[in-house]
Amino acid sequence: MKVAVIGGGAAGFFSSLSIKAHFPDSEVSIFEKSSKVLAKVKISGGGRCNVTHACFDNNLLSRHYPRGGRFLQKLFYQFDAKSTVDWFKHRDILLKTYPDGCMFPQSNNSQTIIDAFVHEAIQKNVHILTNSPVREIEKINERFRLKVNDELLEFDRVVITTGGQPKKGGLSWLEDLGLDIVDPVPSLFTFNMPNESVTSLMGNVVNDVTVRIEGEKLLGKGPLLITHWGMSGPAILELSAWGARMLHEKNYQFHILVNWLNEMKEIELTEVFEVIKIKHSNKKIANINPFPITNKIWCYLIEKSGIQPDAKWSEFSGKLKNKLINNLLNDRYTVSGKTTFKEEFVTAGGVALHEINPQTMESKKIKGLFFAGEILDIDGVTGGFNFQAAWTTAFVAGKHINGH
C-alpha cells in the first residue's frame, strides 16, 4: 500500500507514524512544499511546544473546541490526551504539567518533539520530501495521481494534512475535488486598542478576569495581559476563539466589558468598600488596594473614575463610588482590529466535517482520501488543544488507512 501524506507538519508526521505502526509494510511519503518540516511545532508555545492539555475526561476535553468538539468527542475514544502522554512516554519523552493544565516536554524545548518525530519517521522508512508541493490531485479508478513539482506519482491512499489556510482560495484545489469548504477566518488573536490609554500599563497581568463582548452572550475567563497594542492572555484568546466568526463579521470593530474582579457582583463590592471606609477612613484611596489586581491598574481605574490622587476613603461616596464600581466590574474598551497570537496562526474553517467519516477520518465522497489536523473545520482554545486535535485525527486516519 502506497500512501502519500500531503503536508509535513504535526498532523502529517503523526499520521505517517500511525500508518507505519498499524501497517508496517506500507510505503509512506510525506510531501512538504517548503524547505522545513514541523515549522509550527518549532515555534509553538514560545518554542517549548504545548503538546496537549491535562484534561483526561473526554467529555470535558471536547468542550474546549469552539468548532469540532462533538466530532472530536467520538474520536477521543480512539486516541485522547492520555494516549498522547503515553505515546511520548514510550519514547522516553516525559511531559510536565503546569498549574493551568498545559503540558510541555520536560526539556521545555520543541526540538525534543521534532527530533522524536523525525527520528522515528526515518527509522520506519517514511520518505520525507521537502520543497515538494503537490500541484494537482486526481482520482483515477482506485488510485490517486499526484503532480509533485513536474512529476506524476501514483498512490493507493492520500492523507491531506496541509494545515489551516488564511483564505478560501488556498483550499480551492479541495473544492475542485467536490468537497465542501467552510470559509476560513482567524481564531486565537489578541485585541488591538489603538485609542485606549490602558496600553500605557503594558506588562500588567491580572490572573482572574471575566471579559464580555458588549451586546453578546460570549464570555472569556482567565488571566488577562495588557500589551502595548491592547489586550491578550487566555481570557482574550478564549473570547477570540469562541467569537471568531462573529468578530470577523464585525470587522474586528467592537466593545468589550472587563470585570477586573472576575465574577464579583456590585452588592459584594459595595460591602468591601464599606468595610475599608470604616477601617481606613483617613488613608488615601490610591494607597489601599484590596483586590487581586496590580497597584498600577488600581490607580489607573481610580483616575479613570475621576477620583483625585490624594482623595481619602472618608470622601468616597456618591457618583465617584458608583463610577469606580462600574470601572471595576464593567470596564468598557473599544477594540479596533486584531493581532495574531505570537506566530501561532489558527483558523476557524476548512474542510466541512459533514464530509468526513467521524470513525475513520476518510472522505465520505472520495474513498481512500483522508484528512487530519487544521485543514479540517476544527479549532480549539489555547492551551495544547489544537495539537491534541492534530494527534487524534492523525492517529485515527493512520489506523484506518487500509479501510479497516
What does this structure look like?
By secondary structure, this protein is of the alpha+beta class. It folds into 2 domains: 2-186 and 343-399, 3-Layer(bba) Sandwich (FAD/NAD(P)-binding domain), CATH 3.50.50.60; 189-340, no CATH class. It contains 13 helices and 20 strands. The protein has helices at 10-22, 39-47, 58-62, 69-75, 81-89, 110-123, 172-175, 234-242, 244-249, 266-279, 295-304, 318-329, 385-399; strands at residues 2-6, 27-31, 52-53, 95-97, 102-105, 127-129, 134-140, 143-148, 151-155, 157-160, 181-187, 189-192, 205-213, 219-226, 230-232, 253-259, 331-336, 338-340, 346-351, 369-371. Strands 17-16-13-14-15-12-18 form a 7-stranded antiparallel sheet. It has a 5-stranded parallel sheet with strand order 6-2-1-10-20, with helices on one face. A hairpin with a 2-residue loop joins strand 7 (134-140) and strand 8 (143-148). Helix 1 (10-22) runs parallel beside helix 6 (110-123), helix 1 packs parallel to helix 13 and helix 2 (39-47) packs antiparallel against helix 6 (110-123). The model has no long low-confidence stretch (mean pLDDT 96).
